[in-house]
């Protein structure tokens, strides 16, 4: 319910004689157009020409990174699917077939049509397994084709890892990153209260 | 009622409880691992230490004790004074948390407990941000301690809750502490795996991710689950439970605090006995047969159709030839609606309590306990609501038979029409029961799985599993326990309560509460519900 006291009424300002003529405004617009005629164009003739992207932070197609041994780096923690505001990541977790790892994604699907390319998933991932790549020109003829599964996402990694290597900052000390038992530097004495 | 003073705030508390319990009851968040109200007190985790005023041994005057004292082990005394929000208490908590995390692998992303882990919560709230440990962490393999349970030893905080549970509640003592100091481990005795009928509780008890359930392992993250309060339908004990589900799929059952009935526990039969809910072979649509022709009617047409067939039968053969078999898996509300439908159309009709499944003997825990020492009971009667149905049959009066009597009389052809309700998780129609189908001209079967009665049935209505029902069950002690619906029935099916509500002539959505209010007018017992109090917010 809109209450009357919440409504603010604004009267339209009266136009002066010069404004009612419209000519100064038209000339103003022409000036902008003319200056642009002599500037360097910002557009390119896509798809013959393509823009150079900032590889590090362009938010395009996802990829699933591989660890040092070429296995999917994801540990199926569901952080990305929990963080995803579009609910487009669907994971089925299972027992990892490798002795040094606990959990891995049996199935990992991303609906690229639902995705809003916000990068929350990349932000949330504790092992930097999911990343957005500079790839933006992906098409499909059906909706199903735009749901990428684990193999397809790994293939995106294989395509793009030369261009943008995996970050892997190794912040967490657990088996997924092979850093279990890593020693942590002693904090300076004044912090260690 | 003793009154104690915590941080200057007077608190009235129950008799004979610990200071920790009093603080928790008053809504305080006091960190604790080893204390559990259902187990003996060992005061080994040292996380709950507080400053307390104790009598000075020289002067006998109450004075602040120079040492911190465990709040879990100190009973409340009238007029006693304790301090929780103090720098010394904080410092102890910080040190304890750092100690617990010395060897902890910090593998939260792959740990099933994360999201409901008290190590995470307490680290965040009472711990410190960084570790000063410079040595290698102790690594410990995971152990297969029993058919249902895994032990991730390096996540354990040695609270010994699991060990005390097997000693004091199940009475089977499979778990023990081996080695000492930083080499301390929990283990099962060699050749004696953790396999008692209550073992699933150690997974709930474990405050961290050390003991985990194999069936649930890696299936879901707990923060994705919705918990609905329910009552276990596994046996007549009627344990209060949480049904944890996500997007219409049930993932696990957990016990819900219910003092005097199941306390904090539940048995494994109930805990793991829900798989049938998602069985693909469930009946999911109503069926109607006339002669050899079978159709699937629209749900909107079902109430009218069922009423018409019953009325037609009563016109032709009289109401006395009609019987209803009520299953002990129905809720009281559903049974009441069905009785109402039948007695409305045919006051002389017969009501029957369906077969009551039993398995073995009633078992008490700890093993060998009797009388007052019993802490948990698994009933031999494997259905949730025999007493509820009996209560309703007694209130309905008129012709009431046992299932054996009914089978005998029906075999002689004394009944021409029957409404038989199943809903048993296990197959229940034996050869003799299946033969009865031929005796009826009008057979309405309400069941969850295909069985040999169905080919002879004029109308088949899909029944629901308990998690899809709503209403109340009456347990072995006669307590009327209401519960909510957690899941929707399979696509195409309707809740039993809903179609019975409509067949009984009501309109709109079925609600257990509304039907119960109508029942309570006729049967006052249904105004007295047993609803357990919630656990204090920060207790676990
Ligand atoms: S980029 Fe955003 S919307 Fe797309 S999958 Fe990641 S979190 Fe979801
Ligand atoms: S957040 Fe990373 S590790 Fe976790 S499920 Fe997503 S991709 Fe896998
Ligand atoms: S396994 Fe869990 S319940 Fe048992 S001692 Fe360790 S932390 Fe406590
Ligand atoms: S010492 Fe009190 S809860 Fe562990």
Query: Quick one: CATH class of the domain at 62-160 in chain A?
Result: Alpha Beta
Number of domains of chain B: 3
Query: How much helical structure, as a percent, in the residues of chain B?
Result: 10-25%
3D shape of chain A: elongated
Rg estimate of chain A, integer Å: 26 Å
Q: Uncertain segments of chain B of ≥5 residues (pLDDT<50)? A: none
| Percentage of residues in strands of chain B | 15-25%
* CATH C-level class of the largest domain in chain B: Alpha Beta
Shape descriptor of chain B reads elongated
Order of helices and strands of chain A: HHEHEEHEEH
Radius of gyration of chain B: 28 Å
What's the tally of helices of chain A? Answer: 5
The proportion of strand residues of chain A reads: 5-15%
N- to C-terminal distance of chain A: 56 Å
Widest sheet, order of strands of chain B: 16-15-24-23-22-17-18-21
Quaternary form: heterodimer
SSE class of chain A: alpha+beta
Q: How would you state the average pLDDT of chain A, rounded?
A: 85
User: Largest sheet of chain B, if any?
Assistant: 8 strands, mixed
Strand order of the largest sheet of chain A: 2-3-5
What's the tally of helices of chain B?
A: 13
Describe this structure in words.
The complex is a heterodimer of chains A (193) and B (540). Chain A is an alpha+beta fold and 193 residues long. Chain A contains five helices and five strands. Chain A has helices at 17-21, 23-37, 79-83, 120-124, 150-160; strands at 62-64, 89-95, 103-111, 130-132, 147-148. A three-stranded antiparallel sheet of chain A has the order 2-3-5. Chain A has a two-stranded antiparallel sheet with strand order 1-4. The termini of chain A are far apart. Chain B is of the alpha+beta class. Chain B has 13 helices and 26 strands. Chain B has helices at residues 19-25, 87-100, 118-126, 161-168, 201-205, 268-272, 302-317, 332-345, 386-396, 403-411, 431-436, 496-503, 512-522, and strands at 3-6, 9-12, 49-55, 62-64, 69-70, 81-83, 142-144, 149-152, 175-178, 185-188, 211-213, 226-231, 240-246, 249-255, 287-290, 293-295, 322-326, 350-353, 363-365, 376-378, 399-401, 417-421, 442-447, 459-462, 471-474, 480-483. Chain B starts with a strand and ends in an 18-residue tail after the last helix. The A-B interface holds A 75-79, 82, 93-95, 102-103, 126-127, 172-176, 180-181, 183-187, 191-192 and B 105-110, 130-137, 139, 217-219, 221, 223-224. Bound molecules: iron/sulfur cluster (SF4) (3 copies) and FE2/S2 (inorganic) cluster. The site of one iron/sulfur cluster has 13 residues of chain A, from helix 3.
């Amino acid at each position: 319910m809109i209450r009357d006291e919440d409504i603010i009424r604004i009267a339209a300002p009266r136009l002066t004689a010069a404004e009612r003529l419209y000519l100064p405004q038209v000339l103003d617009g022409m000036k902008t157009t003319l200056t642009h005629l002599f500037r360097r164009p910002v557009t390119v003739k896509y798809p013959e020409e393509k823009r150079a992207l900032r590889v590090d932070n362009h938010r395009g197609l996802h990829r699933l990174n591989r660890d040092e041994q070429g296995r999917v780096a994801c540990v199926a923690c569901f952080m990305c699917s929990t963080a995803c505001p579009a609910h487009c990541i669907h994971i089925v977790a299972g027992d990892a077939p490798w002795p040094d790892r606990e959990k891995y994604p049996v199935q990992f699907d991303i609906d690229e049509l639902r995705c809003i390319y916000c990068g929350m998933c990349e932000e949330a991932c504790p092992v930097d397994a999911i990343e957005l790549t500079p790839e933006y020109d992906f098409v499909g003829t059906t909706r199903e084709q735009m749901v990428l599964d684990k193999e397809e996402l790994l293939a995106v990694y294989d395509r793009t890892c030369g261009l943008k290597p995996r970050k892997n900052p190794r912040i967490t000390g657990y088996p997924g990153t092979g850093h279990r038992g890593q020693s942590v530097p002693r904090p300076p004495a004044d912090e260690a209260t | 009622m003793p009154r104690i003073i915590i941080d200057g705030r007077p608190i009235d508390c129950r008799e004979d409880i610990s200071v920790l319990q009093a603080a928790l009851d008053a809504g305080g968040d006091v960190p604790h691992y080893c204390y559990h109200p259902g187990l003996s007190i060992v005061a080994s985790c040292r996380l709950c230490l507080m400053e307390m005023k104790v009598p000075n041994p020289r002067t006998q005057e109450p004075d602040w004790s120079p040492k911190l004292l465990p709040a879990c082990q100190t009973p409340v005394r009238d007029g006693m004074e304790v301090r929780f929000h103090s720098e010394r208490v904080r410092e102890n908590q910080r040190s304890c948390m750092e100690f617990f995390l010395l060897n902890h692998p910090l593998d939260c992303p792959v740990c099933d407990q994360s999201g409901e882990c008290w190590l995470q919560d307490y680290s965040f709230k009472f711990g410190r941000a960084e570790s000063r440990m410079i040595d290698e962490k102790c690594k410990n393999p995971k152990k297969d301690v029993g058919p249902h349970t895994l032990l991730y030893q390096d996540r354990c905080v040695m609270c010994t809750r699991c060990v005390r549970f097997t000693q004091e509640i199940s009475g089977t003592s499979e778990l023990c502490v081996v080695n000492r100091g930083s080499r301390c481990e929990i283990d099962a005795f060699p050749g004696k795996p953790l396999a008692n009928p209550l073992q699933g509780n150690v997974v709930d008890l474990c405050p961290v991710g050390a003991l985990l359930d194999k069936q649930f392992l890696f299936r879901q993250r707990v923060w994705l689950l919705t918990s609905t309060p329910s009552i276990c339908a596994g046996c007549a004990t009627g344990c209060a439970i949480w049904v944890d589900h996500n997007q219409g799929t049930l993932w696990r059952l957990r016990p819900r605090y219910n003092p005097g009935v199941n306390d904090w526990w539940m048995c494994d039969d109930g805990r793991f006995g829900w798989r049938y809910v998602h069985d693909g072979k469930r009946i999911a649509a109503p069926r109607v047969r006339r002669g050899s022709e079978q159709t699937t009617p629209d749900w909107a047409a079902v109430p009218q159709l069922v009423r018409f067939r019953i009325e037609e039968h009563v016109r032709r053969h009289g109401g006395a030839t009609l019987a209803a078999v009520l299953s002990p898996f129905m809720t009281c509300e559903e049974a009441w609606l069905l009785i109402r439908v039948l007695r409305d159309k045919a006051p002389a009709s017969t009501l029957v309590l369906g077969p009551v499944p039993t398995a073995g003997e009633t078992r008490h825990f700890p093993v060998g306990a009797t009388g007052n020492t019993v802490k948990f009971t698994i009933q031999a009667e494997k259905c949730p609501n025999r007493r509820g149905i009996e209560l309703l049959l007694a209130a309905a009066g008129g012709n009431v038979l046992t299932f054996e009597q009914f089978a005998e009389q029906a075999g002689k052809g004394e009944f021409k029409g029957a409404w038989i309700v199943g809903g048993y998780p296990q197959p229940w129609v034996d050869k003799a029961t299946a033969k009865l189908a031929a005796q009826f001209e009008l057979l309405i079967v309400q069941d969850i799985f295909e069985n040999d009665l169905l080919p002879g049935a004029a109308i088949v209505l899909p029944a629901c599993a308990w998690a899809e029902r709503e209403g109340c069950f009456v347990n072995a002690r006669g307590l009327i326990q209401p519960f909510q619906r957690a899941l929707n029935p399979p696509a195409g099916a309707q809740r039993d309560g809903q179609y019975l509500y409509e067949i009984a002539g009501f309109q709109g959505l079925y609600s257990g509460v509304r039907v119960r209010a109508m029942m309570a007018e006729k049967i006052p017992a249904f105004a007295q519900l047993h609803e357990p109090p919630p656990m204090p917010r920060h207790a676990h």
